[in-house]
Amino acid sequence: MKIEDEIQQKKFASAHQKAAVNLIYTFSWLSNRQNEFMKEYDLSMQQFNILRILRGRKSEPASILLIKERMLDKNSDVSRIIDRMVKKELVDRQICPNDRRQMDVTITAKGLALLAEIDKRDTEFHSVMNGLSEKEAEQLSSLLDKMRSAE
């Protein structure tokens, strides 16, 4: 459905304004779909993002700062999210031996198992992109990169 129909607005000040509104609307739509998917696993998208960051570290600990730098949502309160994940036994947190002011975070076996379970449904998770061909998905990604690099 076109953005004009979705938000019941027929005119925009410019093509740029229309694209920005469409991007914001689509981000919200995508976030809602992903959040619904993650509810089955009792995870937020931020928690899922942290698990994937930690899995990518291959058992090497990550500081809170490193996790925050790699987060998709830069406004996340990583410390509080980590606290909740420790309670769920998805991650471990220990004082860094090299810098006692820092915390080292690692993914647990339970966290890895949960990601493996989610990975089995990867096609379903990414099904929101099914309306685009591989070429269109690459083009969309390139356009988004281009937009961010114009800052």
Features:
151 residues; mainly alpha; Arc Repressor Mutant, subunit A; three-stranded antiparallel sheet; 8 helices; 60% helix
Averaged pLDDT: 91
Output the CATH class name. Mainly Alpha
CATH superfamily: Winged helix-like DNA-binding domain superfamily/Winged helix DNA-binding domain
Strand content: 5-15%
Q: Low-confidence stretches at least 5 residues in length (pLDDT < 50)?
A: none
Number of strand segments: 3
Order of strands, main sheet, comes to 1-3-2
Question: Could you say which overall geometry the principal axes of the C-alpha atoms support?
Answer: elongated
Q: Report the sheet with the most strands, covering strand number, pairing sense and barrel closure.
A: 3 strands, antiparallel
Number of helices: 8
User: Roughly how many Å is the radius of gyration?
Assistant: 19 Å
Structural class: mainly alpha
One letter per element, helices H and strands E, the order comes to: HHHEHHEEHHH
Helix content: 55-70%
CATH topology: Arc Repressor Mutant, subunit A
Name the CATH architecture: Orthogonal Bundle
In whole angstroms, the N-to-C terminal distance is 30 Å
Number of domains: 1
